[in-house]
Design brief:
By secondary structure, the chain is of the alpha/beta class. It has 2 domains: 179 residues, D-Maltodextrin-Binding Protein, domain 2; 122 residues, Periplasmic binding protein-like II (D-Maltodextrin-Binding Protein, domain 2, 3-Layer(aba) Sandwich), CATH 3.40.190.10. It has 11 helices and 10 strands. Strands 1, 2, 3, 4, 5, 6, 7, 8, 9 and 10 form a 10-stranded mixed sheet that branches. Strand 5, helix 6 and strand 6 form a beta-alpha-beta unit. The radius of gyration is 19 Å and the shape is globular. InterPro entries: BUG, Bug_dom1. Keywords: Signal. This is Putative tricarboxylic transport membrane protein. Belongs to the UPF0065 (bug) family.
Length: 332
């Protein structure tokens, strides 16, 4: 069967290990937000963007890092494209932020958004998450191998995800299928407006499996859960609530998929605002409240400041352009 040439598709550069370099660059900041900051999750509640936004907002408040409220706002639709179109019209607004991850690169490349990462202001990359494969707790699929065998026998088997066709979850499950010897382009991927929607449809019996972010699934797993986790895309097992879930590699599929997550701002956000948020988020990552939440969600810190994050996004665009072309999903 055809397979992608990329056995390991990793979208995460090495985690930023120390904050000493940042400390040397920090300068006294005169600018602070004037009132509440809009913090947009470009999807419905329950997905990876939503989880990041609400976790950050809560930690900033609990740790008393800022006087202002970071108001979580959900703007679903188009795998992020609806929110991006709204944000793009608010040029220069220093008090509007949004969560971002690989769909910021993938959706425009697939031709599903007129706006791409170059239209916005990179603020900071924060963490990496991983993909997780879920089925209903009563499903016949007990292992990842069971599901992959079923997908080979029935290419119409539906796998839902919280991002648009050709975007993050689609690429993640296509890469897994390819690494297992299946036809990546034949995966029957069903898009939903966020991982929460995908999991709801799985529990409702509308699809056979879900591929989503491991962090956003934590609240749906555990004793009495309606879902069963078959595997995670990390190199090694995750900690916290996800510690008992085997990796793909443990189950004989040599494939990993890392999901970076970060924050971007409006087009041409003022430099003093970018600097303020860079320093705020770097400080947040060092708090007990953040580290507790991060460990519970199975995230790893992967901080980059605005300049480094912008260069990283450019590299991601080049990488995923090749991947989408190989899958026949690159837009015109």
């Amino acid at each position: 069967m055809p397979s992608l040439s990329i056995k390991r598709l990793s979208v995460l550069a090495l985690p930023f290990a120390a904050f000493s370099a940042i400390a040397g660059q920090v300068q006294a900041q005169e600018w602070t937000p004037d009132g509440s900051v809009e913090f947009i999750a470009p999807a419905n509640p329950g997905g990876g963007w939503d989880t990041l936004v609400r976790t950050m907002s809560r930690v900033i408040q609990q740790e008393e890092l800022a006087d202002e409220n970071y108001a979580a706002i959900n703007v679903p639709g188009g795998g992020g494209a609806v929110a991006w179109a709204q944000i793009a019209r608010d040029e220069g607004n220093p008090q509007k932020l949004f969560a971002t991850s690989p769909p910021m690169i993938l959706v425009p490349l697939a031709g599903a958004s007129r706006y791409d990462h170059t239209d916005f202001t990179p603020v900071a990359r924060l963490i990496t998450d991983y993909s997780i494969v879920l089925v209903d707790a009563d499903s016949d699929y007990q292992t990842l191998e069971d599901l992959l065998n079923a997908m080979e026998e029935d290419p119409g088997l539906s796998v839902g995800g919280g991002s648009a066709p050709g975007s993050m979850d689609h690429i993640s499950i296509a890469g897994l299928a390819s690494a297992a010897g299946l036809d990546a382009a034949a995966v029957n991927y069903i898009p939903f407006s966020g991982g929460g929607d995908a999991m709801t449809n799985l529990m409702g019996g509308h699809i056979e499996a879900v591929i989503t972010g491991a962090g956003e699934s934590v609240g749906q797993l555990g004793e009495g859960s309606q879902l069963r986790a078959l595997g995670v895309s990390s190199e090694e097992r995750l900690g916290g609530e996800l510690a008992e879930i085997p990796t793909y590699k443990e189950q004989g599929v040599d494939y990993t998929f890392d999901i970076w997550r970060g924050v971007m701002g409006t087009p041409d956000m003022p430099e003093e605002a970018v600097s303020y948020y860079e320093n705020l988020f770097a400080e947040m990552l060092e708090t007990d409240g953040w580290q507790e939440a991060r460990d519970q969600l199975g995230w790893l810190d992967a901080y980059q400041d605005s300049e480094a994050f912008g260069a990283f996004l450019d590299d991601q665009q080049a990488l995923f352009s090749n991947v989408l072309s190989e899958l026949g999903l690159l837009g015109e």
